[in-house]
Amino acid sequence: MTDRAGGAAPGFARGRRLRSTPALRRLTAQTRVAPADLVLPVFVKQDLAEPVPIGSMPGVVQHSLDSVRKAAHEAAEAGIGGLMLFGIPAEKDAVGSQADAADGIVNVALQQLRADLGDELVLMADLCLCEYTDHGHCGVVTPAGVVDNDPTLDRYAAVAIAQAQAGAHLVAPSGMMDGQVAAIRAGLDSAAFSEIPILAYAAKYASGFYGPFREAAEGAPQFGDRSTYQMDPPNAAEALREVAQDLAEGADAVMVKPALPYLDIVRQVADAVSVPVAAYQVSGEYAMVEAAAANGWIDRERAILETLVAIRRAGAGQVLTYWAVEAARWLARG
Questions:
Q1: CA separation for the pair 202, 200 (Å, rounded)
Q2: Which of 28, 35, 127, 223 is the most buried (most CB within 10 A)?
Q3: How far apart (Å, rounded) are the C-alpha atoms in residues 19 and 30?
Q4: pLDDT tens, 129-161?
């Protein structure tokens, strides 16, 4: 609509009015990302003297016990919300014994980090067996090669107790076994850890975006895949059922994984629940952005921050991302 002079008529809506300066855009932003919203996943490997770069994830390493302590201090200084620890043991077996061993790599790391940092960061422990089993699956496997759900629950409860004893502020079951939250809650409560919360990977999909993680955590399945226990990508209503089940079993917060390919699921879950909702920006998401940036196809910083905003805008209160510390520094810069 124009007036007789050819300009916009009085009252014509001009969205550009609020976009004209960086300060105006900051003032009117509807979604914000803060350093405290971000969680850094870290890999710590037994018997490493120095950190080892992960080829498919430029800038990410397998940490030694010393280097993970340094990384944790840097994370605390950057003001991020927490760390999610994954461990790679020196020895693996059929039941993942090192996952709940007192001298297991994650449990030793938790002890050291809790002593170093106290409550300055939320120390989260991924509670799964795939990094610890010689077959690479997330639970106990039958002679026929099927992951056996109920015996696996006993292992998860034992691992949760060990992680709590080591100093974890929060445990995060990611194996997608039926009944895992109830088993872990019962185990923690019976061991006098009733105050330890559970962040359930409630909607974890059998995704093609996990490839680089297999290298990082050295936990690729030695046969088959995880499609019989992780969710099928076409299914959305099932995600809400899984979330509801985990909450009924005692989960304190829930997670959607991966993040960007499942923003619709993040939104639906956030709308349906009244507990914190996290989303995991997984290794494949990270690797794609890094590869495109390395080729000069995208502006790396802008693309990273845009993905984080998208995940927050979809409804995630917390975002697990390998860029957590770097992004926190950018956000602090303003």
A1: 5
A2: 127
A3: 13
A4: 998 998 878 888 899 988 999 999 999 999 999
Is residue 105 within 8 Å of 87, Cβ to Cβ?
yes
By the 8 A CB rule, do 126 and 170 touch? no
Residue 317 pairs in a beta bridge with none
User: What are the angstrom distances between the C-alpha of 110 and each of 42, 76, 83, 88?
Assistant: 12, 15, 10, 14
Contact criterion met (CB below 8 Å) for 272 and 240: yes
In 10 A of CB 22, how many CB atoms? 9
Residue 16: pLDDT over 60: yes
Predicted confidence band of residue 65 (pLDDT cuts 50, 70, 90): very high
Report how far apart, in Å, the C-alpha atoms of 333 and of each of 282, 298, 330 are. 25, 21, 5
**To 5 degrees, how large is the angle CA 166–CA 171–CA 175?**
120
Residues with Cβ < 8 Å from 39, sequence gap 6 or more?
80, 81, 82, 83, 84, 122, 124, 278, 318, 319, 320, 321, 324
156 is in an annotated binding site: no
Amino acid at 212: P
Query: What is the reported pLDDT for 9?
Result: 67
Q: Cα 127–133–137 angle (5° rounding)? A: 75
Q: Is the pTM of this model over 0.90?
A: yes
Residue 195, annotated ligand binder?
A: no
61: left (phi over 0), alpha (psi -120 to 50) or beta: beta
- Amino acid making up residue 182: A
Paired with 62 in beta bridges are 43, 52
Query: Both ends of the chain: CA-CA distance in Å?
Result: 38
Determine whether the annotation assigns residue 130 to a binding site: yes
CATH 3.20.20.70 is held by the domain 32-332: yes
Average pLDDT value for the chain? 94
Domain ranges of the chain: 32-332
Phi, psi (5° rounding) for residue 271? -70, -25
> Has 242 been labeled as part of a binding site?
yes
Contact 159, 119 (CB under 8 A): no
Token pair for 128: 């799964």
Show which residues are catalytic.
204, 257
How far is the C-alpha of 53 from the C-alpha of 145, rounded, in Å? 33
